[in-house]
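User: Just a sanity check before I run the rest of the batch. Below are the structure tokens for the first item. I only need the designed sequence back.
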């Protein structure tokens, strides 16, 4: 009976002590997180002494350092080192105490001795470096790995670890140098290298450092194609697309490539709107002959690149007819089917908006509606395009009929809402402002953020400018100018916009006119005037419905076209601060963080 009582007493004592330890642990963590290091140190000392758990030790040690109890920490560490000579973390912690106490030479001596004592054991070097890293002695962690390379006479060893530390420290020079070293034997790490560098590089000066290192490496090892690929990527990041293409063609000729890498990079040029460079790339691929597997894709992509140049306003008017002929040639050669529908749509667009042949454009689109096997959504888009042609050819009732047909067929879908918005715009063009506003108001709840935003802007544009007869008449002229812009008659649209203020001085459309003119200037590639109009709108019209649009549009021009990332970054930040509910906010935040150098999961 006495033995049973004793056993029960021991068990109870064990659980009591265990419970007490759990309470102490919870309190210690709470005090530590609240930066109450005095109280945390008392409990952590107790926990470490009773368990010898190094997890408690690190927190205990950090607490002592935080409250500057250097002598106490030193005494404890010297005792621990004597008791545990093989545990390098205690030696590193002592060096850290010396560092914090201003005894730098003593700290460095201890650190260097720890490195020099490390035996020829890969795991020992890695463990020591990890200990340095945990105590934030990053340079010593690097020195440990470098010493390990010397001991093992292997300059590739610990490459991943060094890359990780250089990236964490944002040591751009050493990160570049280490990738130059590592990529020689592991070229498959190229995507990782690109992600790492793009996450910490801040401006073109950083890419210039990379370029210098790459050119030296290529000169020394011209057969290592990975460095040429990295150089091409570097030129693309600097938006020097012509130099990238020059390197691409040289590499393709040197390696007798099949053109696939060049084709993929040409698509990157397209994505970055470097259409003229993309055209040269596709033309080079075509010189490989019709047997090349990318020939047909390059041929189609070349035509599409020319089309995008037309849409972007960077075109010679004499080149439009041959471009339309090329799309017609695709349709003639391969027939009108689901696969060639893209050519049919683009041909119709050129016929309507650039060749002013509305009848042919109408016939082209109507022939597209007869193609078998086309998805219903594609048919719906063709009908919207046809409705637009009816607007151009002054057949408003035909246009309304088509728009309404698509809207009903695709109720509460993006394409259906787009059709309804086109109908609202048509009513705006013809001056039926109240009906246009009622249609726009319905679309405010559209699932597509872009359509909803456009509908809100149209509704506000109308309601803000029907307050007086003077404003109403100004709005009629503005709608005429908007119609001219829709018809791709940009000079006439600008002239109409300029005449509003002359005909109706002190009208309420000043900010609307500035935004409309900015959009026209962008479409005609007149960036100087676009920037001026946008800056005036931002500065002089703080309450304008277009101000968030203007901030984002100006930032985009500065970032993508005028190579002024610093000013663009300021505008993105202003947009985020001033308009947290703007539809542009998410994209502005993403771009701002990229430009600031945040690591977005790469």
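Assistant: Here's the designed sequence for the first item:
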């Amino acid at each position: 009976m006495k033995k049973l009582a004793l056993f029960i007493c021991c068990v109870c004592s064990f659980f009591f002590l265990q419970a007490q330890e759990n309470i102490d642990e919870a309190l210690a963590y709470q005090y530590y997180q609240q930066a109450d290091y005095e109280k945390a140190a008392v409990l952590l000392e107790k926990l470490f002494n009773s368990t010898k758990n190094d997890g408690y030790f690190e927190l205990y040690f950090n607490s002592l350092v935080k409250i500057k109890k250097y002598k106490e920490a030193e005494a404890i560490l010297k005792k621990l080192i004597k008791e545990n000579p093989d545990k390098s973390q205690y030696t590193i912690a002592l060096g850290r105490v010396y560092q914090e106490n201003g005894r730098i030479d003593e700290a460095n001596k201890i650190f260097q001795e720890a490195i020099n004592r490390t035996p020829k054991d890969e795991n020992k070097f890695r463990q020591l470096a990890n200990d340095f890293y945990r105590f934030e002695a990053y340079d010593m962690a690097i020195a440990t790995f470098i010493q390990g390379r010397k001991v093992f006479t292997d300059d590739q060893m610990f490459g991943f670890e060094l890359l990780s530390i250089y990236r964490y420290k944002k040591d751009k020079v050493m990160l570049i140098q280490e990738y130059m070293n590592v990529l020689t034997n592991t070229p498959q790490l190229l995507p990782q290298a690109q992600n790492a560098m793009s996450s910490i590089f801040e401006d073109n000066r950083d890419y210039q450092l990379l370029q210098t290192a790459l050119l030296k490496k290529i000169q020394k090892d011209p057969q290592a194609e990975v460095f040429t690929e990295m150089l091409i990527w570097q030129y693309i990041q600097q938006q020097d697309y012509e130099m990238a293409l020059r390197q691409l063609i040289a590499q393709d000729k040197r390696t007798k490539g099949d053109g696939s890498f060049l084709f993929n990079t040409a698509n990157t040029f397209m994505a970055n709107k470097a259409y003229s460079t993309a055209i040269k790339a596709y033309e080079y691929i075509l010189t490989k002959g019709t047997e090349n597997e990318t020939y047909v894709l390059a041929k189609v992509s070349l035509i599409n690149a020319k089309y995008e140049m037309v849409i972007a306003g960077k075109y010679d008017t004499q080149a439009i007819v041959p471009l339309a002929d090329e799309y017609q040639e695709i349709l003639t050669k391969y027939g009108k089917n689901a696969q060639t529908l893209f050519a049919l749509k683009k041909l119709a667009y050129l016929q309507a908006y650039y060749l002013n042949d509305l009848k042919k454009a109408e016939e082209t689109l109507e022939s597209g509606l007869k193609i078998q096997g086309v998805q219903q959504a594609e048919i719906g888009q063709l009908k919207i395009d046809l409705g637009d042609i009816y607007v151009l050819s002054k057949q408003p009732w035909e246009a309304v009929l088509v728009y309404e047909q698509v809207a009903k067929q695709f109720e509460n879908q993006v394409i259906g809402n787009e059709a309804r918005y086109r109908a609202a715009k048509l009513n705006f063009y013809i001056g039926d402002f109240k009906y246009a506003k009622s249609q726009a108001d319905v679309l405010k709840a559209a699932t597509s953020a872009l359509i909803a935003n456009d509908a809100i802007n149209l509704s506000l544009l109308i309601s803000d400018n029907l307050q007086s007869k003077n404003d109403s008449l100004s709005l009629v002229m503005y709608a005429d100018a908007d119609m001219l812009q829709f018809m791709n008659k940009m000079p006439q649209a600008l002239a109409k916009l300029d005449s509003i203020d002359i005909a109706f001085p002190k009208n309420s459309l000043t900010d609307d006119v500035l935004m409309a003119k900015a959009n026209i200037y962008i479409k005609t590639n007149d960036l100087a005037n676009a920037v001026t109009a946008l800056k005036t709108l931002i500065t002089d019209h703080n309450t304008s419905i277009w101000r968030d649009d203007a901030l984002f549009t100006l930032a985009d021009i500065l970032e993508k076209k005028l190579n002024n990332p610093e000013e663009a970054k300021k505008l993105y930040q202003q947009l985020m601060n001033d308009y947290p509910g703007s539809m542009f906010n998410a994209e502005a935040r993403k771009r701002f963080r990229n430009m600031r150098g945040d690591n977005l999961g790469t």
